[in-house]
Specification:
The protein is mainly alpha-helical. The protein is about 85% helix and about 0% strand.
Length: about 475
Amino acid sequence: AISSTTIIVKALSELKLKQHKFAQMIFGMLIVEDILAIGIIAILSGISTTGTISSDNIVSTLGQLSLFIIVTMVLGLMTIPRLLAYIAKFKSNEMMLISVLGLCFGICLMVLALNYSIALGAFMIGAIIAEARPLHLIETLVEPLRDMFCAIFFVTIGMMFDPTILVNHYLPILIISLVLIGGKVVGCSIGTFVSGQNGKTSLKVGMSMAQIGEFSFIIAALGASSKVTSNILYPIAIAVSALTTLTTPYLIKLSNPLSSLIGQRCPKFLSKLAHYYTNWVADLHPQGDSALIVKIIGKITAQIIVNCALVAAVFIASVFVASHLDLVFVRYYGAIVHEQLHKSLICGVSLLISLPFLIAAYRKLKAFSMILAEVLIRDNLLKQQTYNARRVIFETLPLLAIASIMSLIFSISSPILPRTELLWGIIGATTVIAILFRNQFIRFQSWLQIELFNVMETNTDEKH
């Protein structure tokens, strides 16, 4: 039951509710649902290809998907906003529009070539372009196209809707629609309330999320093609979507008076209980120094994940390059490079390219370990004992983490690994290079990080 971003955003826009608090929460929930839907689509695509499903396949598919999203987003944020800012200098609306459309279709084609859903490409390029400085110009230029495709989207739903399906299966369609609306209203309302929002906001969120859309179609179609679900599920999903699309604007309009009515009729002890719970959840949020520590830990963790993902991407790309490199040598030089020399070169270059990100990950791990040691080891011991205990965590945790990460990456890139003695020699040489040019690598990675943050923060400031 994946809610339709297109339908909800269109309804909220027409009702002039996009800037309300509950609408902002809905947008966040829609993003999470879309990401989960992309994961489900990737898993179902793998099932349709292999015909089997296992926990290893699911973990591998989700890992590859996460890696692809992280690397594409980082590289896209580093390049595309700069490109669009440069194009904006020409002050040509036609050039800007064509460039944006070219980027959108290009990313979608790339994603399709990698056997992922086009929806994933559209989602990512939208998130990347949202960080561009000329965003307001792009929104103005794309608005007519957006309205056109939005109309086509609803027309397409209507064309896929078969009235005979509604007649022949009216009972399951009606039951599923009622269960869907009731389940989404209750589930989303309770989930929002449990997160600490008041009852009125929670009910508005729940009543606005009560429908399904495009991702549900894709999932139902993939499920039918991979024989995981019945073939009748797809037309039923379309019929349910058509019915719930009709009810969405009315549910959104009804949410405000209904929440007010429930608030008036609700017993006082329940109102007080809900009020106490909301305040209790608000008090659970970290305050002062604790909030700062949580924020720092979150930021450090995100940077570690991004740097490790970039390292993994370098090695995965190296495996792909290595598989085609022999063909290049045969074509242009009429010979095949010695296997061990070939692997040693590819592995060495991969490690060298990865050094800035490995060093950055190690430094962030040390910072994380320092905070962890301060939190775990209190000052109730002798000074020397406290220092030694913190020192153990501070020194060993980053090394163990980096060793584990590299072991995982080497297992992924096993086709390009040379013999053990050669591999240790490459690691030793790379370590020497890392020590000698450590400051240069740190400056390079810091420059990349600053540029990435500047792109995101500049656009955030302009939005506000």
